[in-house]
What we know:
Strand content: under 5%
Helix content: 55-70%
Number of domains: 1
CATH topology: Serine Threonine Protein Phosphatase 5, Tetratricopeptide repeat
Bound molecules: adenosine-5'-diphosphate, magnesium ion
Shape: globular
Largest sheet: 2 strands, antiparallel
Number of strands: 2
Mean pLDDT: 96
CATH architecture: Alpha Horseshoe
CATH superfamily: DhaL domain
Strand order of the largest sheet: 1-2
Order of helices and strands: EHHHHHHEHHHH
Radius of gyration: 16 Å
CATH class: Mainly Alpha
Number of helices: 10
Amino acid sequence: MLDTEFFRRWLRAADAAVTREADRLTALDSPIGDADHGSNLRRGFHAVLEALDSPEGAAATTPGAVLVLAGRRLISSVGGASGPLYGTLLRRTGKALGDAPEVSRDAFASALHTGVEAVAALGGAARGDKTMLDALVPAVEALTGGGTFAAARAAADTGAEATIPLLARKGRASYLGERSIGHQDPGATSSALLVAALGTAQGGGPGE
Ligand code: ADP
Ligand code: MG
């Protein structure tokens, strides 16, 4: 079972990963964006950790409440497209978890599916459009039916790398048309970091 502490560890591990990889994320956002993805996420996840340490954060005593609070903070602290999108992912995943004090892996996989669908609805994107969904959708598929966090991580990494030859159809990168081909999508790359952070939160996961 995954308890509230697991979800706090997940967000701490995500903050550590986006902080460590901020320069790489910004470098990926340079040829096909506006070179702010790393700084956007670093600012956003620092704000999430601050919120979790605040009195409001102390009152978030269920997995769902922790994720809803984190999502709201991402939406309010990140100006770029990724803030509302990642914020929606966490907020809608949290809402789907309800007020259970701990949740099974299957319940989490199903809630994350709901969150990813909400990202697709908000951004009007689908897998193959060269966005964060190219890492998130395969990760959820890997988790659904009992897959491990390691399997989800591998699926997200493969999905992020598979964005390189794709033509961007959504977001800033889509303004470049054919010139978006040949570059890895920054949002898919950060999504793979967030999925990898699940393994870190569980303990024993290599890398983060
Ligand atoms: P901005 O594009 O506003 O500068 P960021 O640089 O922080 O925001 O984030 C860019 C990432 O957001 C892209 O690499 C892509 O993965 C993701 N993204 C952009 N638009 C969409 C969308 N409509 N649906 C899903 N993801 C998107
Ligand atoms: Mg950008």
